[in-house]
Amino acid sequence: MLTNTTTDQKPTRMQIMPTLLSRSAAYVWTGILVVGFFVLDIFLPLGVAAGVPYAVAVMTSMRTARIRFIAGVTVLTCALTILGFLLSPDGGEPWKVAANRTLAIFVILGAGVFAVYAISVRRRATRQAIMFEQVRRRRIQDANIQLMRSAEARSSFLGQISHELRTPLTSLTTFAHILDGKSETLSRERIQAHSEVIGRSARRLEVLINDLFDASGSETDSFKLNLSTVDLPQIVSDTANEYAHHVRTLDQELEIDIDIPDESKYRAIADSVRMSQVITNLLSNASKYSWPGSTIHAFCGLENDKFIVKVTDQGAGISREDISKVFTPFFRVDAAEVRAVPGAGLGLTIVKSIVELHDGQVYIESEPDRGTTVSFTIPAVLSS
């Protein structure tokens, strides 16, 4: 697992002291140089010192890394250059004096501008380095979080799959053992009942293995579609009608609403088998998490040159926090009434993968104890 080897520890006193001493010394030496050069300027004949040495004081002030202080020293030394001209002893030719003092002011200003620019560049580089470090740390933290989530998902997956495999396998082995050891003493009705249990367990294993295969294929981009021009409303109607018998065995009702005229020329470029799989998965989810006596509604319509398919149930619903997670492989809502329902948490993952391969989108709306609506859209085209 990636770890963040850098820390946000505060600098120690021993680390801070050299910096403070360096800055304090810069303040002191700047002051000494300014005073010293001013005294030198006013006691030497006019035009000899000329104020140029003040540039050394300005450059020394750079050690403080304080732009305002550097600017202040620059302005002060320019003023002292002029004051030195007024207070220094007479001597020198006037034009040389004026030229030297003007040159001195330009040199001081140049030193000040250079110092301010250098500090600004250094600060900008420091800010960029800090931002880069923050981004690097954030990426490491995100990577750690992602790895932790992957590890948790893997552990959850292994536990869930073990449970899902164990249940039908236990039924298979138990009833196969009964039939093997007591078949001569069992009535035909009991043998048939046990055979049906074995058949259901085998089908449950087959569904689970197929879901695992499809989920694996969607993650490795090996999901292949057999595209053709299909009548999506007819696929929805046929699939829903086939599933209606199973819904009725659970004391539930399935309403089918195809809101598209029979003469409509709109078709979908899709894999009919995969589309039927999507609708079956949505109906299966709606049925599994709905109460006996409730109604499931399947709808297919046309909206803005797109087919829209909705499956609505009156079941347990999903919290707002969990809605964003339901398409994650192996995720299951952590509620007692949901955990009691068999499943590996792959149905909606497969639905999303198939729909997105058809250039479509999947949406989900839900409230706890108010039911759930899962819908998807795929492009519709006019057939000739």
UniProtKB/TrEMBL annotation:
Cited PROSITE patterns: HIS_KIN (PS50109)
Record-linked Pfam families: HATPase_c, HisKA
SMART domains cross-referenced by the UniProt entry: HATPase_c (SM00387), HisKA (SM00388)
Keywords: Kinase, Membrane, Phosphoprotein, Transferase, Transmembrane, Transmembrane helix, Two-component regulatory system
GO molecular function, one term: phosphorelay sensor kinase activity
Catalytic activity: ATP + protein L-histidine = ADP + protein N-phospho-L-histidine
All copies of domain Histidine kinase, residue ranges: 160-382
Keyword Transmembrane helix belongs to the record: yes
Transmembrane parts of this sequence: 27-57, 69-87, 99-119
Protein name: histidine kinase
Organism: Candidatus Lucifugimonas marina
